[in-house]
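Please discuss these two lines.
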Amino acid sequence: MSQQKLTPSTVLLLTVPPLLWAGNAVVGRLVRGAVPPMTLNLLRWTIALLVLLPIAWPLLRAPGTLAGVRARWRRYALLGLLGIGMYNSLQYLALRSSTPINVTLVASGVPVWMMLVGRLFYGVAVRPWQVAGAVLSIAGVLVVLCRGDADALLGLRLAAGDLFMILATIAWSFYSWMLLQPKDDPALRANWAAFLAAQVGFGILWSGAFSGVEWTLGAARIAWSPLLLAALCFVGIGPAVLAYAMWGAGIRRGGPGLGSFFMNLTPLFAALLSSAFLGEPPHAYHALAFGLIVAGIVVSARR
């Protein structure tokens, strides 16, 4: 993969997605009382698929592409479960009892889970500096979980939202490792819209099943309003489609190593947006946690 010089356009491509993902967390928190979390995820990705299909359909309707998706349907079903169905549903579930700042900071620990999943399930060797980086990142996540109170570590009790977000990051780690496996048709993989649409199609089936269980268990009804409609349009188009397209273009220009640093802008954007729209200002321990997580990723990214 060729990497270009860090230009203003590359910076823009890698900065907007973290801003949109932070906005996704803030909007999920904002509408938590208007729509159940599994239903929110289903509606979000349904809108995303409607946006993706006109772009992806010319390739998806090709006989060879459809045959390839059908032949590997188990792979796409699992990608849809982990990356579309589980990760996003668990994130929205976490936001019912946790703040966007906490959720995005816990999610920033995903390189640690990536390392563990890679070692345990894919046989990827772990280097000493990666272990050091993992320790720093775990320390950052623990700072979030104990809310900056060192004494609280002795009697640490995970809040429901924190636990859901940890499960979400584990699901995302498995999803990410699956994406790294060269098992897709090259033409499909080269077309971001078609590749995402193939995953979203299966992910919507999982999300629909989760929503059915949610409603069977007595989830509150949807409180439709102009605010909710605007929120659904935002999460279905911005963080899902636009962010994915820009992120892919930015990674192709700057490389995944550079992208990991921009990824850690998400908690900072979440703190700013939470303060502006939710009245949930950041605390000193959030800055400490962010510093530890970024330091962990910088150390683990050594060559």
Observations:
- The two ends are 17 Å apart (CA to CA).
- DSSP finds 14 helices and no strands in the chain.
- Residues 155 and 300 are 29 Å apart (CA to CA).
